[in-house]
Specification:
By secondary structure, the protein is of the alpha/beta class. It contains 15 helices and 28 strands. The chain is globular, with a radius of gyration of 23 Å.
């Protein structure tokens, strides 16, 4: 089993399941519907769903410590499956379902097969699971999970192994990797986030984040459920179609807490006009965490300016840094302090209580304040390890997490530059794909369907702008502008504009381009001619 149970001791479940013992009938989760409305399910009803799901999982042969993969979208079935697995003593492992309304792609099936091979689940819960069945893994549909039947055990009646859940990294710099998150680490991170965001019993949340991603799962689903707070939960595809509806959760329905990657702010800026905000009161938004990817200072400023006439406080934007290997949150800007930036890099706040962050050079030696290096994290919320060996990228060693991310500390605040795996050394200076992307976008020359990737080939360092174009054709002058600015930011590297068909750039669920996949594709079919 993927949970590596050998030698693990039974542990207390902490507060994660306490809400099921005495669920609130007056509060719960509002789920968005494809028709544009909302469906409310109280915590009393959700607790009953979870107990029924636990019974179905037990009937299906799931036992203590077994890993149960959840391939379900945001909705009541996911909540039931996640907490039902915990009630049954199993370990839930959420995986990304194929986006609603899109045909199942070969790439998605291949990623799913790779994740199932790494996780080796006892059962997969979801719909349309051809890949799982082909791999010989037992499956259970969402409808079957919630079918009438005996309830599972109550909280506290089943012993649990040390692992509470397995969550997968986004896979932006390589294959997604499963992270074993312990009960203690999960409960600690939830408590730290609650205190950081000022959560009370009356807090109301809103989220559109995918529930298989750490920010969406730990931050914006488990957080409000454990606290017994009301939650307005949109599916990501509903947010893409109706971003104004997400803002209405704050302006009309009382939500004050949320989290988003930077591309969520950008999507609102592109799709919501000032006139559509008439009548919305956004003055009580207290905590809008921004993380998961590099953010530009100008993006935060423009977003705050759009909402300011409706009472939105710029100080409610809370840039943060976190990753699946640390359960979720590592650093964050505190409420009321305001965010800062140094050059093009936004500060992600100071370490949250109990967590220590340091920055080291390539030899593992601490670097002075303001000096770029690898970010190292230590604290009680760290995961228990990856499924399988540590491999490349982030890795657990000596009680610490070497994140594989580059950044620097200044006056105690962390500034994240980018992924070391998405950078290349040019004439002794490290160049980051995120820096180049940001400068090209701010100059208005890089379209949305585009990404920058870096690497070394036989001729030396290369910076590639991968741009989606109809029929592989674009304005030559526009490509020349991209190439010139790319060369200015990566002086000494060969620069290339590589055109690909629309829809061919792979993205993670958190909005990051899968840069290693793009680099491999570029190397397999180098563009001709190159522009230097």
């Amino acid at each position: 089993m993927g949970t590596e149970r050998g030698g693990e001791q039974a542990v207390a479940e902490g507060p994660l399941l306490a809400w099921i013992r005495d669920p609130a009938a007056a509060r719960g989760i509002h789920f968005s519907t494809r028709e544009g409305g909302w469906h409310h399910r109280s915590y009393l009803e959700l607790a009953a769903d979870a107990r029924r799901a636990a019974g179905r999982l037990t009937e299906a042969g799931v036992r203590r410590g077994d890993l149960v993969a959840l391939v379900l979208p945001s909705g009541p079935a996911f909540v039931a499956a996640f907490f039902g697995a915990l009630l049954a003593g199993a370990v839930p492992a959420p995986l990304a379902p194929e986006a609603a309304g899109r045909p199942v792609t070969t790439g998605h099936q291949e990623r799913m097969a790779a994740l199932l091979t790494a996780a080796r689940p006892r059962l997969v819960v979801g719909d349309g699971l051809q890949g799982a069945r082909a791999a010989g893994v037992d499956t259970l549909s969402g409808a079957e999970l919630l079918a009438p039947g005996p309830e599972g055990p109550a909280p506290g009646e089943v012993e649990h192994d040390r692992t509470a859940l397995v969550q997968f990294t986004s896979g932006s710099t390589g294959p997604a990797r499963g992270v074993r998150v312990g009960w203690d680490g999960l409960c600690d991170n939830l408590a730290v986030i609650r205190d950081w965001l000022g959560v009370t019993s009356r807090s109301v949340w809103a989220s559109w984040l995918p529930v298989h991603h750490d920010m969406g799962l730990v931050g914006c689903l488990l957080g409000p459920v454990v606290a017994g707070n009301d939650l307005w939960l949109m599916r990501p595809e509903d947010f893409v179609r109706r971003p104004l509806e997400h803002l209405r959760c704050f302006g009309e329905r009382g939500a004050s807490i949320t989290a988003t990657p930077a591309f969520g702010l950008d999507h609102i800026l592109r799709k919501v006009s000032p006139g559509q905000l008439t009548g919305l009161d956004l003055g009580h938004v207290t905590s809008m965490v921004v993380g998961a990817e590099r953010m530009a200072p100008s993006l935060l400023e423009r977003f705050a300016a759009l909402l300011a006439p409706h009472g939105f406080d710029r100080g409610a934007l809370l840039p943060a840094y976190g990753l699946a290997e640390a359960t979720l949150a590592v650093t964050g800007v505190r409420r009321g302090t305001g965010w800062r930036h140094r050059g093009p890099v936004v500060g992600c706040g100071t370490p949250l209580p109990g967590t220590a962050v340091r920055v080291v050079d390539e030899e593992g030696r601490p670097v002075p304040d303001g000096t770029l290096g690898e970010i190292i994290v230590r604290g009680p919320s760290l995961g228990l390890g990856h499924l399988g060996d540590e491999g490349a990228g982030s890795r657990f060693t000596d009680g610490e997490l070497r994140t594989g991310d580059a950044g620097f500390l200044h006056s105690g605040e962390l500034y994240v530059q980018g992924r070391l795996g998405d950078s290349v050394k040019v004439r002794g200076t490290r160049v980051f794909a995120e820096d180049l992307e940001q400068s090209l976008r701010e100059a208005g020359v890089l379209p949305r369907g585009a990404a920058v990737v870096l690497g070394d080939d036989a001729a030396g360092p290369v910076a590639v702008a991968v741009i989606e174009a109809d029929g592989g054709r674009r304005d030559t002058a526009a490509d020349d502008r991209v190439a010139r600015l790319l060369a200015r930011g990566a002086t000494g590297a060969r620069t290339v504009v590589h055109l690909v068909p629309r829809g061919s750039i792979p993205w993670t669920s958190s909005g990051k381009p899968r840069r290693r996949s793009l680099w491999r594709a570029y190397c397999a079919a180098p563009p001709d001619p190159t522009r230097t």
